[in-house]
Amino acid sequence: MVQFAWYEEDEPPDVIKDRNFVIRLPDGKYITIPMPLGYNVIPATSRIITEWMLSGGRDTPKRIAHLFDVVLDAFNPIGNAGLSMQTLAPTVFDPGVALFENRDWTGKPIAKEDISSLDPTPGYTRAKETASTISKYLSEFLNFATGGTDYKPGVVSPTPDQIDYLIGQITGGVGREIMKAEQTVTAGITGEELPPYKIPLVGRFYGDTASQAAQRSKFYDNMIELNKHENEIKGRRKDRKNVPEYLRENPEAKMFGMANNVERQVRSLRKQRERLLEKNAPREEVQRIEKKITEVMIKFNERYEKAKER
Description:
Layout: H1 14-19, E1 20-24, E2 29-34, H2 41-54, H3 60-73, H4 85-88, H5 94-101, H6 133-145, H7 160-190, E3 206-208, H8 212-238, H9 243-249, H10 256-278, H11 283-309
Antiparallel strand pairs: 1-2, 2-3
């Protein structure tokens, strides 16, 4: 537990802590040293139990599922996205299951999803900042070639990140490192922030809890939790069940209205950033928007954590 004493409970992500010994560096950065697969179960199990005790027994079902995942993961050399269908499915089917669940083996979302499944958008319009150039062009080509437009998806309309994921699965480690190199060069030209895990070779042993990628991941995890709270509260109100009691047990649930406003703000900033990239604006302008997005996410994440601690 000493190696994680400087971080929040979810920093670095569990998938990093489960498999690596973590050495802290200044400003939220860290170095990871992989532990032998199988033997990592012992320190990981001890850490999960300790974190549960220090939290006062909070999120017990979630931590039990995490324990099962750590044990099952020891028998899967490729890894899995937490306790999910990827854990249970034969290894050969993992790429397809991962795309269906939209989670890679680290638990990170593979692609940006539509806000509503009833309002689908073309896949190429949902590219993440670090998608490879070739996948962006291929995604756009497939969309238009199968009857899609700028506003509606074609019969085949994958996102660039889904294509990147499949290329990485087919070509293996060498292919993934080549794509990371291309993304690193592109980020250097456009001024976009490159997540540490996208840095060729180095990304395997280095991370940053304060990076935009880390804050973005935490931000959307918090959004998902607040959406669950929102559904619970609306359901209780509809069925005339005890809402105040639920809010006393989950004080952060009161933030779901604020979360919707913040999400709209982030979406607006992302559109500004996309327009700047389309106009080939100076990289300083792109970085200014990127910094503002990160600041909004950090502020919200901090307020959410404080609300949970009440």
